[in-house]
User: Fold Type IV pili twitching motility protein PilT from Micavibrio aeruginosavorus.
Amino acid sequence: MDLTQLLAFTMQNKASDLHLSPANPAIIRVHGKLRRIKSDAHLSSDDIRSMLYSVMTEQQRADFEKDMELDFAISFGEKARFRVNAFTTRNGCAAVFRTIPSEIPSFEDLDLPEVMRRFAELDKGLVLVCGATGSGKSTTISALVNHINQTMDKHIITIEDPVEFVHHSKRSLVNHREVGRDTTSFSRALKSALREDPDVILVGELRDYETMSLALTAAETGHLVLASLHANTAPKAIDRILDVFPAGDKPMARTMLSSSLQGVVAQNLLPKADGGGRVGAFEILVGTSAVRNLIRENQIPQIYSMIQTGLRYGMTTMEDYVTDLVDNGIVTKETARAVLSQVVEEGTTEVDSNSIRAGGGKPQTRAPEEISTAPSAAKPAHSSAPPQDSGGGSYSF
Assistant:
């Protein structure tokens, strides 16, 4: 198969990722499980390099040769886009293509909690969406931006590496900026954004001290800042932000965060009990006055108890959310216990995974299998704007 056929095959099987690795057949990830493409021969490093160079620009090829790794994105007809990471291994050239559907998901598509609609309709403050890689953060943030774009008269600036979902201006004016293409860094773009009359700023990832400091400043000065972060729980996300500040700046950082934080969404994608894809599970923290006081006073470990008792504000713990999924037969007890064990490993609190009530069907325990289907053709095109955290409109990959 050539790259066009492999990408078509990836889409036909609703896979979230396509893996190209030397001395292996092409592999796709479907509902979180890796599946080898049976009909495909083992790929060589030269095969993979040729595929990549066919969709890279001349500058991208030069950057890849120089840095031995590269993030970029391509469009695949009108159907989807792919976020691509090309990298070098001991055995040669390799790559991962992550699917980004062209259709932007709505709140209803993702069955997001209602409080997240309120987050999107805020005039100012900081809203964090956190989770592990592949947990659907980009899909969720895109739904927030889509809601704003469709229902409000705002100027939205997105700063991403790379751009994933492409939002065309509707009621709002949307400007996308891609790090490495339209700007040299997140921090530089954020500085500029503050002079570009924005209402909403999307920061693809809070990575460093300068970016976090600027994001807090933007949120404090009357802008709505939507940002993603790698953390498995809401309290841990707050810790991650504060940890990047030097000791002497931490009191100021706590004050800025306490005054600007509107909400934190921590999420996971869990396999459904019926094998029909994956479903989002959420922990939600709302920035109430009590939560802000705890941040200001550096009492972060106590925030979890606020989430437990904050139902009337729209808060929920991951434990409660996952338990509801089990009770409704959407995920199995085994799946629930696995995700709650990860929450415990994050060190936020101790949850009793044995208290999960019975529900759902049998867990999926199939061994990795091979897939063989004939793909249809469609051409990938150069694009510096890319795909996303893995996701489809309904989180069903």
Remarks:
- The radius of gyration is 21 Å.
- The chain has two domains: 3-102, 107-355.
- Residues 121 and 173 are 16 Å apart (CA to CA).
- The longest helix spans residues 137-151.
